[in-house]
Each structure stands twice: as structure tokens, then as C-alpha cells.
Amino acid sequence: MSASIIKRVQIEQIIAETADAKTFILLPLDGWEPVYKPGQFITLVFYTHSGEKRRSFSISSVPGEPLSITVKKVDNGEFSRLLIYKAAKGDILFTAGISGYFVLPETKSYETFFFLAAGSGITPCFSLIKMLLFGSNKKVILIYSNQSEAAAIFYSALQMLQQTYPERFQVRFLFSNRNNVLESRLSHWLLSHLLAEFLPAERSTSLFFTCGPADYMIMVGISLRANGIQSSQIIKEDFSPTTRTILPAPPDRDAHMVTILINGATHHINVQYPTSIVATAKMHHIELPYSCEAGKCGSCAATCLSGVIWMAYNEVLVDEEIAKGRVLTCQGFAVGGDATIQF
Fold first, then answer.
1. Residue 139 φ/ψ region, left for φ over 0, alpha for ψ in the -120 to 50 degree band, beta for the rest
2. Domain residue limits, the chain
3. Which fold has domain 7-99?
4. Tens digit of pLDDT at every position of the chain (343 positions)
5. How many other β-carbons are positioned within 10 Å of the β-carbon of residue 134?
6. For residue 32, how many other CB atoms are within 10 A of its CB?
7. What residues pair up with 207 in beta bridges, in sequence order?
8. Which of 49, 84, 121, 168 fits as disulfide partner to 117, beta carbons 3.0 to 4.6 Å?
9. pLDDT in tens, 89-135
10. Confidence (pLDDT) at 3
């Protein structure tokens, strides 16, 4: 087990957050000591009759706290429903590791961190907010949208944080069952109003994090840019399970050898469009980290050491990371010759 990328965790405690959301406190087993950043997610591996399936769940703890994830039941979510309805204390779960790019920047030039979350999108934001409040003197603003107060995950915990850090943490709860338009659904008009209220002056030193349903994040992104916020100031976490229906073709469709370095092992596979590096590795029963297989989550990111890896889609890596050789192997194809990548 130790040589495999697949690790085991045990459910130590289950906390009911709302009627359809629970927090699972996890105990790493077999000597695994996970290292993570607030805002990242853990990818769980489920072994089913139809084969292995993976799903990612945001970590709601911060380093120093017991490792925990918070899961909200999705009506058609096979594994969120499994966890909410059937998981019990003592159960063993399997994981392909922790990853994600919805994290705090290394630079300390930002003075204000502005969070826009809807529904279970609060989960990674909650971890980031705690880290900022516990470990910095930065100002934090949260606009949190839900159907009702009862549906708001971490509602009491967020209120307690606001009381503990009244000078640095401001929260505005929006509930769609309210009649007052200033307290109801987030819209471009209301977001513009809130920006004027919370950030009336200089906004270039503010960093924005947003997580929620796809339509919500599209609206938030358009509204922020319309209000003068640069795209480089907006960090998004996409929970959408939507798969790609069209796969762009690389400039070179020939087969090329890809050498994979992972966990001290070396693997050689021939990769040819339209079968990506991850998909080819799976065919050869090579364990690699991955989750969404759509270029959205970053679980499959590796560093290209030699050659060129072309990506069909990329919604995660920024230009700086690409310049360092980071590639998404679920969307990656070697072009122009052989390549070597390292996890």
C-alpha cells in the first residue's frame, strides 16, 4: 500500500452540518502523512461493479486541525449520496491524494480577500477564510448565497468567526427565500452594490475567490470584470462534473513515447490522439493521480521535464505554472517527439 499512490483513510467522526451536508473527519492510515494547503481537495477512489471511479471533495480543515472534508448531497450524485446516507464512523475510504489550485497566492501584496460562495461552494472558501483569519492580519469579506438559513453550511461557525474578528471579517448572507432584494439572490446589480459598499476605493490590492454552481460563477466572473476587476484577480473553483463533448486535435497526431516518473518508478507508454496520457496509463494499469478528466480540477498535473506536452483543455493552470512546465495529463498529448513527465 505504501508504494501505491492509493492511500487509506478512516472516518473518525461525522458531523451533520445541514439536512443534506455532513463533515467527515478522516484519520490517515498506514503511516500516510498528508500535506495540503487550505482550499485544496482530496480525491476519493471508489471500486464499483463497473470499475474504479474517482470523485473529489473539498477539504474544510486547515493544517493543524484533523483532516476533514464536507460533503453536500447532490440529487444525482452517486457518491455524495453514498457518503451522506451510508458512510459510518470506522469506515475505510481510499484516496488518490490531495491537490488543487484554489489556494492562497505566494505573494503577500494583496490586502483584502473577497469570497463569493454559493451552496457547498463555501467548503474550500471556509478553509481559506480560517487560514487568513488565524494566520494573517488581512481583511476578509464573504458574500454567501443559499436558499435559506437552514441550508447554509457552517452558518454558526461563520457567525462565530465574525464575532471573533469583527474588524477583519465581514459576512453578508444572501437567502433566496427573502423578499428584500438586498438580502436575496446575487445578481450583477447586487454584486455591483456590494462592491461599492465593501470596496469603495482601491480594488487592485484585492483578490477574489469564487465557488458555486456553474451559472453562478459565470455571472460572478462577468460582473466582477464589468466592475473593473482584472481576470488575474479572480480565482475560481469549478465543481461542475460536465464532460467534454468535443476534443480539439493537437498539431501532431502521431504516437510518441511518454516516460512517466512517479513514486520512484518509471513507466513508458505510447500516447496517441485521441487517447490522453491519463487514459493511456489507465489502459496499462498504471496508477496516476486524476479526477475530473476534463481539465478542470488539476488533480492530474505533472511537470514536463523534456519534450512538449500539448493540452486540449486547461481551466486550472495559469501562465506562470505553464511556464514552469506544469501540464494536465488528462488533457495532454506529446507533440513533435517523445516527452518525459514527473509527478
1. beta
2. 7-99, 112-238, 256-342
3. Elongation Factor Tu (Ef-tu); domain 3 (2.40.30)
4. 346 899 999 999 999 999 999 999 999 999 999 999 999 999 999 999 988 999 999 999 999 999 999 999 998 889 999 999 999 999 999 999 999 999 999 887 899 999 999 999 999 999 999 999 999 999 999 999 999 999 999 999 999 999 999 999 999 999 999 988 888 899 999 999 999 999 988 899 999 999 999 999 999 999 999 999 999 999 999 766 566 678 899 999 999 999 999 999 999 999 999 999 999 999 999 999 999 899 989 999 999 999 999 999 998 898 889 999 999 999 999 999 999 999 9
5. 13
6. 14
7. 113
8. 121
9. 999 999 999 999 999 998 878 999 999 999 999 999 999 999 999 99
10. 62
Distance CA 142, CA 158 (A): 10
Give the separation between CA 317 and CA 323, rounded to whole angstroms.
10
d(CA 286, CA 258): 13
Answer yes or no: are the C-beta atoms of 42 and 69 closer than 8 Å: yes
- Reported as type and span, the H/E element at residue 61 is none
pTM as predicted = 0.89
Q: How many CA atoms lie within 13 A of 184 on its CB side?
A: 7
Residue pLDDT, tens place only, 230-247: 999 999 997 665 666 788
Q: DSSP of 131-150, one letter per residue?
A: HHHHH---EEEEEEEESSGG
What CATH superfamily is the domain 256-342? Beta-grasp domain (3.10.20.30)
Cα–Cα distance, 299 to 303 (Å, whole number): 13
Coarse DSSP helix, strand, coil percentages of the chain, rounded to the nearest 5 percent = 25, 35, 40
**What is the spatial distance between Cα 49 and Cα 131, in angstroms, rounded to a whole number?**
40
Q: For residue 76, what is the enclosing H or E element? A: none
Q: Grid coordinates representing 51? A: 470499475
Cβ neighbour number for residue 30 with a 10 Å cutoff: 10
Domains 112-238 and 256-342 share a fold: no
* DSSP assignment of 262-290: ETTEEEEEEE-TTS-HHHHHHHTT-----
Q: What is the DSSP letter of 232?
A: G
CA distance 162 to 154: 12
Q: Which three cell numbers stand for residue 271?
A: 500516447
